[in-house]
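Dear support,

We are seeing what looks like truncated structure output for some complexes. This example has two components. We would appreciate it if you could run it in full and send us the complete token output so we can diff it against ours.
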Amino acid sequence: MTIIYEETGAEGGPEIPQQRVTIRVNGRKVIAEVEPRLLLAHLLRHGMGLTGTHTGCDTTNCGACTVLVDGRAVKSCTMFAVQAEGREVTTVEGLATQSELHPLQEGFKEEHGLQCGFCTPGMMMAAKALLDRNPDPTEEDIRWGLSGNLCRCTGYQNIVKSVLWAAEKLRSQSAG
Amino acid sequence: MIPAPFSYQRAGSVEEALDLVTEHGDEAKFLAGGHSLLPLMKLRLATPEVLIDLGRVPGLSYIEDRGGHVAIGALTRHREVETSGLLVRELPLLAHAAGQVGDPQVRHRGTIGGSLAHGDPASDLPAVILALDATLVARGPSGEREIAAGDFFQSLFETALAPDELLTEIRVPKPATAGWGFQKFTKRGIDWAIVGVAVQGHSVGLVNMGPAPLRAGATEEALAGGAGPREAAALAAEGTSPPGDNNGSPGYREHLARVLVRRALEQATAGP
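Here is the complete output from our reference environment:
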């Protein structure tokens, strides 16, 4: 993995401090030399090319940048990459296998849970965190679970249906 | 938005965190969950030269029954406070209010100590801590001291903490009167309170009604004198100086305070 910084031109200027971080991303161990101010969202997107994590508002509101850190949904625009040292990060790219979509991805497809798709990765990761701890959520549980994620196509109705669809499929899988 | 550059230090213990802040002085800021500090750094309203990350400091995340009070480690995340069986049973106001902070993602990162040490009058938890008469424990180079919640919040983003002190624990007495109420008026579920109210018994804390988190003193006095919720709530805005912004004028906030204090008092009287 390579991160390229712009030549500042300041001969003998202050050195850019670097910090080594070791993170497991979607099961893969990654070592990066980063500026401490680098946001986790930017490490994922620009450093690793995992552009499924979107940056929307960049102000901790919209939730498009939601990823799982040690299984918990967090907004990766509001976390420094260095804070993720030693953590397990899961992005939307970590949901599907080579041959199969994750039930959440299937659910969004089946129930038309997206229009433009910008909010979708964040919605799915917040939903994954919710379903991991509550496999049988009510509609209200889902609405509260997704309250940190904004959709500007006003697709909430179908997003909730998508998560219900996925919950049912996951339950039937674990029962089978 | 990219924060200004800073030097990053990871503290492995409270002692190390205190050594680092002594070394770097005013240039340094503590980083806990980062959900107050990072947004400010991204806007470059905060430009600390040194960040001391407390994320790896062990032993500061706990919720313990200590008989007369519950002790909460400063690094305990909102999610833990929200879902703690002990707090739901003994201090339901605090557990409920923690579940109203931001959204799930914010509650997964933000910490009770970080929220209180930030000293933002628009935050929910300072008003709760005031209404519950909590005691805050700080550690500095000269040892540990206790600060009453009423003395802790001094002005906008200003607390009684010295720059070289670290908030380590919040001690919340188990309330003598069971009734509690919490009201938060927002445009959207995840927003900051335009005005908020926390009630425990006859204690009333106000969110976003002045430069510092404060109590509704006139309402509390009226309640102590035997006034009913409606009568006492009419005095809720006395002695406050609420801000005016896009969400509401000071006058509108005063109106909200009267309405929300009445609702919170009625909620406290009616029981859960």
